[in-house]
Amino acid sequence: MDDLPTWPTGRLLLVAARLVEREWNHVLAGHGLTHAGFLVLHSLAEGPLAQRELAARTYVEEQTIGPVLERLERAGHVTRERDPADRRRMVVTRTASGSEVYDALIAADAAESIIKVRDLGAFRDDLIRIITSIRPMEGGSR
Description:
Layout: H1 9-29, H2 35-43, E1 49-50, H3 51-58, H4 62-74, E2 78-83, E3 86-94, H5 96-107, H6 110-114, H7 120-134
Antiparallel strand pairs: 1-3, 2-3
Helix pairs in contact: 2-3, 3-4
């Protein structure tokens, strides 16, 4: 790893992302969650959402969100009910148990403890700039 300074920026970013993801998944597994499950709990912080909306907000494919929700439901972290206004829609709500596990991870700064940078705020700002500069180009020509 002595050659890290010679690596292209893209390679540094990809390797760092994979290493952080591996560590983060280990932390989440200790709480019985997957990364997708954590994203669902985060997205439900403001209140219930339709299953389709939840898939879009978490960047999880619609066919993938069902099994994620089933695991969270079995663990008691979410409930799913038919929308009384539109019986075709499933509305997902975070339970007290889901809030507890989510809040415990946030309170412990679990993700931030993995990332060792001098200025976390500036680092986060840089990541947000990267994401927002690329995201509008998704699905279109570059």
